[in-house]
Amino acid sequence: MSDPEDISARSGAAGQQGPARSQTQGHAQPQAPAVPPVTAFHRRELDLILRVYGQKVAAGEWRDYAIDHLKDRAIFSVFRRSSEMPLYRIEKVPRNARRQGAFAVVGAGGTILKRGGELAQVLKVFEKRRHLSLV
After folding, report:
1. Domain span at 55
2. Quick check: is 82 in a domain?
3. In a domain, 131, yes or no
4. Which alpha helices (H) appear in the chain, and where do they start and end?
């Protein structure tokens, strides 16, 4: 199995040259239905999201999450309780990549909190802000 040629170009039965022939001569083989394309998070993107999620779970702010892979977008929803509406949605919409950026953090009311092309920058919306006070 070390030769680089394609399997379909190998010799058929009894030393015949050319593509392998089907056992059902003349009959069309049923093909599997085409799988519609979906948008998904890549491994590195999911790693960044889960790192923030883990910090918020450790702080007791978040408790559950859901991931949806749709035709035009991927959504990571964050919940305080699984029976509630999501607190935040981290969305990846490749269609918006050139205009506003593919990534967005959406609040519970549907307000877009931050949007951009780099997920790491968009996730900075979850960093704690330090309040300075005069002494």
Report:
1. 43-124
2. yes
3. no
4. 43-58, 119-122
Cβ contacts of residue 71 below 8 Å, gap of 6+?
36, 37, 38, 39
Distance of CA 3 to the CA centre of its chain: 35
Beta strands in the chain, from DSSP E residues, in sequence order? 64-69, 74-79, 88-92, 103-107, 112-116
The share of the chain scoring above pLDDT 90, in percent, equals: 56
Cα separation, 129 vs 77, in Å, equals 22
Check pLDDT > 50 for residue 49. yes
Amino acid found at 125: V
Q: What is the pLDDT of residues 61-76, one digit of tens each?
A: 999 999 999 999 999 9
> Does residue 11 belong to any structural domain of this protein?
no
Report yes or no on 10 lying in a domain: no
How many domains are there within the chain? 1
Q: Which pTM value belongs to this model? A: 0.69
- DSSP conformational letter for 8: G
